[in-house]
Amino acid sequence: MIKAEKLSKSYNGIPAVHQLSFEVARGENLILLGTSGCGKTTTLRMINRLIEPDQGTVYLDGKDIREGEPETLRRKIGYVLQNHGLFPHYTVAENVEIVPRLLKWNTKQVQARTEELFGKLGLDLSLLKKHPAALSGGQQQRVGLARALMADPPVLLMDEPFGALDSITRIGIRKEFLELDELQKKTIIMVTHDIQEAFEMGDRICLMDKGRIMQLGSPEQLLFEPANDFVKEFLKQQHLHLELKVLKVRGRSAWNMMDELGSEALRNLLNDYKS
Amino acid sequence: MQEGVSVWQFMAQQSGQLIRQTWTHLGLTLISLILAILIAVPLGVFISRRKRFAGLVLGFAGILQTIPSIALLGVMIPFLGIGPKPAIIALFLYALLPIVRNTYTGITEVDAAVKDAAKGMGMSKWQILTKVEFPLAFPVLMAGIRTATVINVGVATLAAYIAAGGLGEFIFGGIALNNSNMILAGAIPAALLAILLDVLLSVAQKFSLKRVRLVYVFLPFCILLLCSFYLLPSRIGGRMLAGFTPEFMGREDGYLGLKKVYGLNMETVVISDAMKYKAAFEGKLDVIDGYSTDGRLKAFDLVTLIDDKFIFPPYYAAPVVRQDILQRYPLLEGILNRLSGLISDQEMTSLNYRVDKLHESPEKVAHDFLTSKKLLQSDKSGPSGVIRIGSKVFGEQYILAQMYKMLIESGSNLTVETKTGLGGTKICFDALNNKQIDFYPEYTGTGFLVLLKPSKLLIFRLTKDKNAVYTYVQKEFSEKYNLKWLKPIGFNNSYALMMRRGQAQKLSIKSISDLTNHLKQN
To answer: Record's PROSITE patterns (chain A) (predicted)?
Structure first.
């Protein structure tokens, strides 16, 4: 679906991203994980041409994204930002209608789609007439997502989508996102610095440092087969927690079973599993 | 102040004038403002895109802002002549900075995340500008436009100096004529206009965007209407055009008298003293008012028309001194009187010519003259002290002030401070009454008509006799203000109408009656 080939970008001679290559399959969730300044956001923004790479190519469905206008490309790719980026002078309705209007949908289509999405995202239709400033942080983020999903783009780019939320709201919304059928079939590239988030949401994780890929693989691979010391070091602190998330007992995550069994039982289970 | 006439009565009497001036004022302000918006907003957008030009553009606009308005108008004259054109350009230049700066600030301060989202969703640059940046920058942009509007309403009063009309005609006429009602009749509407426009714009600012768009459509129409009324040519079909100072326009012994006594009826514009000679010389004006000893008569090859019905009263110059100063320094009167009867009309004209046209300094001209008359013998005697001499803002007064300074400093132990450039008659006279100056050279006619405001009957009785006017002002000033008129210097710097020599000869106009007849025939 998306293929990045040897992407490089430097600012004032300092490389931000260096010779980066990866592929994302259709319907897959790829997480770009790393600390601030590791080049993950730069990488993301090269996919919708908000940043043009110095070298390398991005292919979308086998086609070089540099063919055609950047605007046309961006209208096909959903984009969710950390600070939601809602237009403060537009109502919620006007905000979510932006991309459909750019694509010249008629009013009926727009309305039907808005109602559908708001239903799925658990947003009340009475919010439509309000301005973003009147919404809670969680609502703003959901509207931001709704706006990105309106035109049903096959690809979704998310830049720290939960970064501006408090930790409790963040966990709640993350869960909702995971369960959302709209997102199941989408190819998603998401940037985060939150390891838990990455492990919870990613099919594969691309751990980056100083513009290079440290390891690209499934959560289990990162956890149990770290490619180098950096990866080991990076995951060390939250190792047990992550193990719980990754390990599955009869197809269910150990983490989710904790509530049902109690932590004592779970620890026993885990010890059994390990031995 | 005319007795019993309030500002409101004055405004009612002059309502025709008032409405015309207000319209012109509004026209000047709005046309220049629209031009400024058309240029400054795109410029502001441009520098928000290319930040390296921001400093340059804002700096340049800032420099324009610091040029004194009068100077800017003066600089325009050689390129654009007189009338509304240079006034509009000057106002336009003043309006640039606040609008450019606020457009730039407004657009730069739009939340980066919002711009990023707009771009990321696939909006084009134009769509981002019109749908995101402009609406969000709008309040800041409007604040800039409001600032520019208020500045322009104020500066537009100065348009009266270059024959562009506006409420400045009343304001400067009133200052020149010592007529507070007239000043207020210009100043109050100007202030109201500034407040009104600011309120209207603040209302426009609060409209929802859709309504604002409507306003944007209608506004240019209104402006076009205004323009069309305003830019109607003021000179229709080669008729002669007169340019008079605000002072002359409002005086009984000026335009009012010309209309009554001679039945003169011609197209007139109001223009400042500094601009009119050049404008006449360049053929922008055909008839101007002026002073019969003005050096610029010679410089610009103009001739005075004979006042064959004696409407211009005699203007013999003489120092007007505070009595208390004369008592404190008894030798002063003798020193000042050394100049009396010494300078003829011709001599004064040529002295003025040297200053106005040849740009010699008034000090040098005064010194040369006094030396040639052997008046500068050093004779230090008497007490020491400081004498402050005032003068109005034109060459002749500077020369006279310098002569007095040299006479006093060579003939006594007194030292002299000159306070030149005290604007018009009213400012000089008030400064004298408030003891900010000790004396200044005044003209009998001005003292009589402007400061004493005699009845019409008295004017009729006295104007034709130079001695009668002098005696009258001497007596009245002494009684009313405790001021003494010393002996006249000799020349009569009376008002006169003047024309280009060539045109006057071609049309064989020698007197004001000839001019009236010529106008009636055509």
So the answer is: ABC_TRANSPORTER_1 (PS00211), ABC_TRANSPORTER_2 (PS50893)
Encode pLDDT of B115-141 as tens digits: 999 999 989 999 999 889 988 998 899
pLDDT bin (cut points 50, 70, 90) of residue B1 is very low
**H-helix or E-strand spanning residue B132:** none
Q: Which residues of A touch B127 (CB under 8 A)?
A: 102
A207–chain B nearest CA distance, Å: 24
Beta carbons of B288 and B500 less than 8 angstroms apart: no
Q: Cβ of A141 under 8 Å from any chain B Cβ?
A: no
Question: Is B122's CB within 8 Å of A88's CB?
Answer: no
As for the ipTM of the complex, it is 0.84
Distance CA(A129)–CA(A92), nearest Å, equals: 6
Q: Report the domain count for chain A.
A: 2
Q: What are phi and psi of A57, to 5 degrees?
A: -140, 145
Residue whose structure tokens are 């450039």? B421
Cβ neighbours of A89 in B, within 8 Å: 135-136, 209
Task: Give the SS3 label for residue B316.
Answer: strand
What does the block give as tokens for A239?
């190792």
Distance CA B92, CA B99 (A): 11
B440 within 8 A of B422, measured Cβ to Cβ:
yes
| Shared domain check, A53 and A30 | yes
Alpha helices by DSSP H, A32-184? 40-47, 70-75, 92-96, 98-102, 107-121, 137-149, 167-179, 181-184
Residue A31 CA to residue A188 CA, distance in Å, equals 8
CATH number of the domain that A27 lies in?
3.40.50.300
Q: How does DSSP assign B322-390, residue by residue? A: EHHHHHHSTHHHHHHHTTTT---HHHHHHHHHHHHTS---HHHHHHHHHHHTT-------S--EEEEEE
Strand partners, A63: A60
Question: How far is the C-alpha of B25 from the C-alpha of B193, rounded, in Å?
Answer: 9
pLDDT tens profile B311-370: 888 889 999 999 999 999 999 999 999 999 999 888 898 899 898 888 899 999 999 999
Residue A265 lies in a domain: yes
Domain containing A63 equals: 1-70+194-237
The domains of chain B, with CATH numbers, are 7-230 (1.10.3720.10), 241-312+497-521 (3.40.190.120), 317-492 (3.10.105)
Same domain, A215 and A248: no
In angstroms, the CA A66 to CA B370 distance is: 87
Maximum Cα–Cα distance for chain B, whole Å?
A: 91
Give SS3 for B240.
coil
